[in-house]
Design brief:
Strands 7-6-10-11-13-12 form a six-stranded mixed beta sheet, covered by helices on one side. Strands 1-2-3 form a three-stranded antiparallel beta sheet, with no helix packed on it. The protein has a three-stranded antiparallel beta sheet with strand order 16-18-17. The chain has about 450 residues and is α+β, with helices and mostly antiparallel strands. The protein has 18 helices and 18 strands. Helix 6 (about 155-165) crosses helix 7 (about 190-205), helix 11 (about 305-315) packs across helix 14 (about 360-365) and helix 14 packs antiparallel against helix 15 (about 370-375).
Length: about 450
């Protein structure tokens, strides 16, 4: 009810414009349940991407024809399409080239799209896609990151993928023999994982950035990088929940690549890479989603033998558990939920952030020695060592005490943590009138109290 003579103010707040995150006082916010929380950079980029959700890859390229496509690339595409849809093989053989390209979602009513040029275009036709740079750069580096060799491949990318794949030295990796747990040797990388990673870079590259796709081959790692934010937002969501993507940056390109048996859809390919690493007892793939890029690192060796034993002898572990344990072996922080779940299943011990495989798992995996190296003794054990050493040597410097205890402290401790631990032990003994410093503060010389 409005009373006469009073002023009424009414505010009309329009909906946020599509693709433009709204800020207050220079900061962006979002609602999380009942709370208002800062909007992270990844979500800001996803909102901005909504303004440009027009599919770059579907655009028809003017002044082009089928003559701008590579005949060998078309032949490979037809072969892959038949392999993908074997029930249509006989029918596919009756299609002319234009019909095939339309059916495979490479062209639109016979007109050449950016997708058809990316996958099937002649090398000399790459200027038709300018300013986009449709290139894959492969680089080989040594253990000190010095360049050894490199090669750059352009369109047609359906052929370049195989050329890059042939460049990668997928040599045999020999496991340390430990009973019958491991096979004698295995390829460093699952071939599917290499191809899937390259093709994912092609399908999800932000071609408006004018950047290349990069593949760096290291001694025991492959690193794949493409420009553009990770659309699903979370790797865990894709792998664990098997959640399909709600939006594809290059939907037309991704559909064509699926039809040509180049990529999986709905995150299935990424999950397969994780499972192949699991089957090898290798570390899980690492995803770095910073700087508006997607950087994927696939390891080609066992990083931590304890972790490998754990996977080999605990087949019932879920992929979610393995991804969390992978963080433990790489000394990466665990989320509260990860820590809670691993502790509930008695898979880890230790204090945040220094977790290690628990005694229950260590005994099952035959790693009792590794557990002991990580599990701290009680303080009385260390104090008794100091007192016994002083009774034998009469005096000890701080350096002497450090050398006495250093290798007996848990392996997860940093040098700084070890120093602090020894300081606390010495202080406890001094406060209980067990030892006394007969030197200076800077150059201590500890003795037993008479």
């Amino acid at each position: 009810m409005i009373k006469e003579g009073l002023r009424v103010l009414m505010f009309q707040i329009p909906a946020a414009p599509s693709g433009i995150p709204v800020s207050f006082d220079g900061h962006y916010y979002a609602r999380d349940g009942e709370e208002l929380v800062p909007l992270n950079l990844e979500k800001i980029e996803r909102i901005r991407a909504q303004a440009t959700q027009g599919d770059w890859s579907i655009k028809i390229v003017q002044d082009t024809s089928i003559d701008d496509l590579d005949e060998q690339a078309i032949a490979v595409a037809r072969k892959n399409f038949k392999s993908k849809f074997p029930d249509k093989a006989e029918e596919i053989d009756t299609w002319d080239t234009i019909t095939f390209l339309n059916k495979a979602k490479l062209t639109i009513k016979g007109k050449i799209t950016r997708t058809s040029l990316i996958l099937l275009g002649k090398e000399e036709a790459d200027h038709l896609l300018s300013p986009a740079e449709i290139k894959i750069r492969w680089k080989l580096v040594d253990g000190e990151n010095n360049d050894i060799d490199h090669e750059i491949y352009g369109i047609p990318l359906i052929l370049s993928v195989e050329k890059v794949f042939a460049k990668i030295r997928n040599i045999k990796y020999r496991y340390m023999k430990e009973g019958t747990i491991f096979p004698e040797e295995i390829s460093k990388y699952e071939p599917f994982s290499i191809r899937e990673a390259i093709n994912n870079c092609i399908a999800h590259q932000d071609y408006t950035k004018g950047a290349r796709i990069n593949i760096v081959e290291m001694e025991d790692q492959l690193v794949f990088t493409n420009y553009g934010s990770f659309i699903p937002g979370s790797v865990e969501k894709v792998v664990i929940e098997d959640a399909p993507e709600e939006f594809y940056r290059n939907k037309f390109l991704a559909t064509a690549m699926f039809n040509l048996k180049m990529v999986e859809t709905a995150g299935g390919g990424i999950k397969k890479i994780f499972n192949y690493q699991r089957a090898r007892f290798f570390p899980m793939p690492d995803y770095d989603l910073s700087d508006n890029k997607v950087k994927v690192t696939i390891s080609g060796k066992v990083l931590n033998m304890d972790y490998a034993r754990l996977l080999a002898q605990n087949k019932a572990l879920s992929l979610e558990d393995i991804m969390a344990l992978d963080k433990v072996q790489k000394r990466k922080p665990l989320s509260n939920q990860d820590e809670k779940e691993l502790r509930r299943k008695k898979l880890i011990e230790g204090r945040k952030p220094n977790y290690f495989i628990s005694l229950h798992v260590a005994q099952k995996a035959g790693d009792k020695a590794g557990y002991t190296k990580n599990k701290a003794f009680d303080n009385q054990y260390y104090r008794d060592l100091i007192l016994k050493a002083l009774s034998q040597h009469n005096t000890m410097s701080r350096k002497d005490i450090d050398e006495l205890l250093w290798n007996k402290l848990p392996e997860w401790m940093t040098d700084e943590q070890r120093k602090r631990k020894v300081n606390n032990l010495i202080t406890e003994l001094k406060n209980h009138n067990k030892i006394v410093n007969k030197g200076s503060f800077k150059y201590s010389m500890w003795e037993l109290v008479s």
